[in-house]
Design a protein that fits this description.
Number of strands: 9
Helix content: under 10%
Oligomer: single chain
Radius of gyration: 13 Å
Shape: globular
Number of helices: 0
Length: 88
């Protein structure tokens, strides 16, 4: 998906656990370019609207941005890639 730089818009994404969509115990990171999350990544709680996970695009510089999620309910804290969007 592609968005103009001046946009202020919600981007929805999904996460499943045991084949069921979930919005609980999830953190999200939005990272520019092809970089993967590391120990310096800033994780935040996603927005939840009508039982769907989303982030708000507002003030993102032009680039390809990737959405990563991390489960927080287990000691393992797996990190999963959830998609990308382009800000032009």
């Amino acid at each position: 998906m592609s968005y103009p730089k001046a946009t202020k818009e919600l981007v929805f994404f999904g996460v499943t656990a045991n084949k069921v969509n979930t919005t609980e115990n999830i953190e999200v990171a939005v990272i520019k370019g092809g970089v993967e999350p590391d120990e310096n990544t800033e994780w935040k709680e996603p927005l939840i609207i009508e039982e769907k996970l989303c982030i708000l695009i507002d003030g993102f510089e032009p680039a390809v941005w990737r959405i990563w999620v991390r489960a927080t309910s287990t000691p393992e804290q797996p990190i999963v890639y959830c998609g990308k969007f382009l800000v032009e």
